[in-house]
């Protein structure tokens, strides 16, 4: 019997991201994917700055081309590409309070899913993940010590793998979720739609910076967008099967011209739905991505990007438990942190214009939360956070936070050893204590030793020098004697705004609560 620490089922964006983040932390990982590679009909194309922050930390920063600063995804309603263009519709209404602050060293990316996945597979493999394509999960059983999985290769060969944990990233129909008997709630199935992927020389219609087109004309209601590499997808609002001649006529109708060469690549049929699993874990099995939450495509990137951060959140916790640094209870915080985020994004989708007409009461007059808050300012509440009170809102823009526990540690530029870095470059590998007062650092070594947890102490003003010291203190909410404890995923776990009477006792208590889940 083969054995590994983690078995990841599903090799799409979320599954391969899970294997990447686990391998980056040194966790032996096997990924199985029943297909030979990426889908010929790519789905996601937009990746948020937060997603790029995670990939950047795992060594992919230079390999994924990022969008230019200030890039904004634009959509217009049109008769056709060559016909009349009507109004432009924003994803989130503009607000007079919109900030021009720099929130991240990353800007996001616009790359087709089938172009990104091979990069992730290569990096995961280079870090030690065992990627097995053409291999499907037949069934699995779990017990108190682990999970046994029966696998079948395309050749027909069957074998078993024993793993400590299983991550199910096997899509919205998730056989693993079904086998566990986990139900789903939410807006539900909205409709089944069809699409056609094609190649055509349409670059002239992208000069205005618009990349999404809502086609609205008699006889055709459809959505047209580009993958930025010569490929376009036309998504119909119905489930009608069309032969090649009918498809060609509809594509010409959407373009508004019939004199261009159009090459058909493939077609698709898929369900538009919004459903959240009633729980994200069962024993030693965890759901991630569409297996945990199916959300309709949207300009906020709430589908793939939400799943990628699921994988990142889970990876450090699994690593900590497998290493013995944390108790298995830490894994309970995965559901506690990620399921509310899925529900918040579900609500926000139906609060906005794109899907408001199809909300069916789902949004319940919810206040629209702006993009920066949804991207960088979501709040975690769990046993892995100490001090995230119920009075705090679910999300705020970074400048509206001040380093509160449960929030993403803010980006700021610092100098370390003469090198210009983002604060984000200091995090995501181990626990980090940031403090300006040197009296914290003897406590760091002692508390870490007592708890058996790796904690790096960073002395502000000595080890790292902020380019703007006052802005830095304000962003982290620290007085000159304060300290912030940052988790391995870059979220603030605990904070002391000033120097307590007994720093060792305070830090030891905090670490026991948030790192060991005592």
UniProtKB/TrEMBL annotation:
FAD-binding domain sequence ranges: 4-344
Molecular function as annotated in GO: monooxygenase activity
Presence of the UniProt keyword Cell cycle in the record: no
Entry-linked Gene3D superfamilies: 3.40.30.120, D-Amino Acid Oxidase, subunit A, domain 2, FAD/NAD(P)-binding domain
Annotated InterPro entries: FAD-bd, FAD/NAD-bd_sf, RIFMO-like
Highest taxon above the source species: Bacteria
Alphabetically ordered keywords of this record: FAD, Flavoprotein, Monooxygenase, Oxidoreductase
Known cofactor(s): FAD
Protein name listed in UniProt: FAD-dependent monooxygenase
Organism whose genome encodes this protein: Stigmatella ashevillensis
């Amino acid at each position: 019997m083969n054995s590994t620490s983690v078995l990841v089922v599903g090799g799409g964006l979320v599954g391969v991201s899970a294997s990447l983040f686990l391998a980056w932390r040194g966790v032996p990982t096997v990924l199985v994917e029943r297909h030979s590679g990426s889908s010929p009909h790519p789905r996601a194309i937009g990746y948020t700055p937060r997603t790029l922050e995670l990939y950047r930390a795992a060594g992919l920063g230079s390999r994924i081309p990022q969008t230019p600063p200030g890039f904004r995804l634009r959509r217009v309603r049109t008769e056709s590409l060559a016909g009349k263009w009507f109004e432009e519709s924003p994803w989130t209404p503009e607000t007079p309070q919109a900030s021009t602050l720099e929130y991240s060293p990353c800007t996001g990316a616009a790359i087709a899913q089938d172009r990104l996945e091979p990069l992730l597979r290569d990096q995961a493999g280079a870090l030690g993940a065992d990627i097995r394509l053409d291999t499907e999960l037949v069934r699995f059983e779990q017990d108190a010590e682990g999970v046994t999985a029966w696998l079948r290769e395309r050749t027909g060969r069957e074998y078993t793998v024993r793993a400590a944990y299983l991550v199910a990233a096997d899509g919205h129909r998730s056989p693993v979720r079904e086998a566990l008997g986990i139900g789903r709630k939410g807006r539900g199935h909205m409709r089944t739609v069809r699409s056609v992927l094609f190649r055509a020389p349409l670059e002239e219609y992208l000069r205005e910076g618009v990349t999404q087109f809502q086609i609205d004309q008699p006889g055709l209601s459809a959505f047209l967008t580009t993958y930025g590499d010569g490929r376009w997808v036309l998504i119909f609002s119905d489930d009608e099967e069309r032969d090649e001649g009918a498809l060609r006529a509809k594509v010409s109708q959407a373009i508004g011209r019939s004199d261009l060469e159009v090459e058909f690549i493939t077609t698709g049929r898929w369900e538009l739905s919004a459903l959240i699993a009633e729980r994200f874990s069962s024993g030693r099995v965890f759901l991630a991505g569409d297996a945990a939450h199916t959300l309709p495509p949207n300009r906020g990137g709430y589908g793939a990007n939400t799943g990628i951060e699921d994988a990142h959140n889970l990876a450090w916790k699994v690593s900590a438990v497998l290493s013995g640094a944390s108790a298995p209870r830490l894994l309970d915080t995965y559901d506690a942190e990620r399921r509310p985020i899925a529900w918040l994004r579900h609500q926000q989708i139906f609060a906005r214009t794109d899907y408001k007409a199809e909300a069916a009461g789902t949004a319940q007059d919810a206040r629209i939360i702006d993009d920066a808050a949804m991207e960088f300012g979501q709040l975690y509440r769990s046993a892995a956070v100490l001090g995230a009170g119920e009075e705090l809102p679910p999300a705020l823009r970074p400048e509206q936070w001040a380093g509160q526990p449960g929030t993403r540690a803010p980006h700021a530029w610092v100098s370390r050893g003469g090198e210009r870095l983002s604060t984000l470059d200091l995090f995501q590998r181990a626990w980090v204590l940031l403090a300006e007062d040197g009296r914290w650092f003897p406590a760091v070594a002692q508390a870490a030793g007592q708890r058996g947890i790796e904690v790096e102490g960073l002395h502000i003003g000595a080890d790292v020098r902020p380019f703007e010291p006052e802005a830095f203190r304000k962003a982290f909410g620290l007085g000159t004697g304060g300290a912030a404890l940052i988790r391995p995923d870059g979220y603030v776990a605990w904070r002391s705004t000033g120097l307590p009477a007994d720093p060792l006792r305070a830090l030891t208590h905090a670490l026991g609560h948030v790192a060991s889940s005592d």
